[in-house]
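Risk register update: the risk of archive-format incompatibility is retired. Evidence:
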Amino acid sequence: MPAARESLLDAAYTALARRPWSAVRMVDVAAAAGVSRQTLYNEFGSKEGLARALVRREADGFLAGVDRALAGHTDPYERLTAAAEWTASAARRNALVKAMLTGCWSERLPAPPLSAVPSSSAVPAQRRADGPLPAPGDLLAAVRDRAVALASAPGAPGTDGAGPADPAGACELVFRLALSCVAAPPGEGGIAELVRGALRGRTPG
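Archived output:
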């Protein structure tokens, strides 16, 4: 039931915005989604299963946003700048994304173990959610791999020497700078100006 599953995840996310995860009740999530509590348990198995699925979905949504940011530009520096802006904005708007990126899980949030858990679910999406969940280093690696793959594709802008000499290093720098801007928001010019300045400092001379 993909539609029911998404409705339940939406309901759980909305509930989490209003109250701590410990106070979120499965019966209320099911009611808000307009499905039976049995449907909820069929999809997720337990409240922990729901938490894992919610974290998995938000991680996937974050990485989909990274892909959009990188694909929206041809200039290699602007790609990284856009990815940094997306990373910072996603972490500011979404507490689960911020926790995944920083490793800092507040008491208000679900904090399922990042290691895989035994799964007997018949739902493929839940079996995936019961697998390993991303740690901060995993997300950094995923962003870096996406940026490097675009930068090193045959004929890609920047492969003629106009882009960063070390795309992986530049991506890691930008990613970490974006996260620092979540903790201490930049002033006038925002994160884009900071990132462009940092990347210019890495440009071959």
